[in-house]
Amino acid sequence: MSKQKRTDKAVKETSTLAVKRAYDYIRDMSIDFAIRPGKQINEVDVADILKISRVPVREALNRLVVGGFAYFDPGKGFFCRKFSETEMRELYSVRFDLELGAVRQVCQEGTDNDISSILSDWEKIEDTYTSVSQEKLIQLDELFHMRIVALSGNSERIAFLQNVYERIRFVRKINIETDSVRETLVHAHLNLAQAILKHDEALATKLLEDHLWVNSQALKENIRTGMLRIYADDMS
User: Which domains does the chain carry?
Assistant: First the structure.
């Protein structure tokens, strides 16, 4: 490889890394509401904080628009995503559809060793979940579902589901604020893994629907609670 090609490759890799840093930074700020919904995202500030140029920041923002974490208003700039109850309900519905397809496929085609590994891990978590932080439990919960989806072998399904998880994470945190719900979550994972291990597609489907609270009043109330918290300052 010539010196020029090595230089071009290094520049490209540096640029790609800068875009990823900007993307991750703004996405995480959006997820944690460090940037309030509907607030303009200052490209110069982001570039200064990350010590990069505005070019990768602009590229990251364009990707964040595609991912649903930001929107572009022509003539004004980029803004942090807004929220609505309808959007949250739709995202939960998409989540269920994606996971339902994966669970059915894994029940039909999954290997017992892989499923047993997931079940074994949650049998250990059952003994320690009361001492686990809310943030950690959310991570463990997402990992449980992503591992099952990964067994279906569909990379597009994995990518779509990861995006959904990131966009609904705030509402999901509200779901597990009480000890009773935490306990229910852990047992739901154990029961679902056991049903999949038995290749019982009908039972696994029913357990998944119950676990994800599809169309339940409790889910609707949690979404409303999340919306109130997100926009509390604007409503005071």
Answer: 3-80 (1.10.10.10), 85-235 (1.20.120.530)
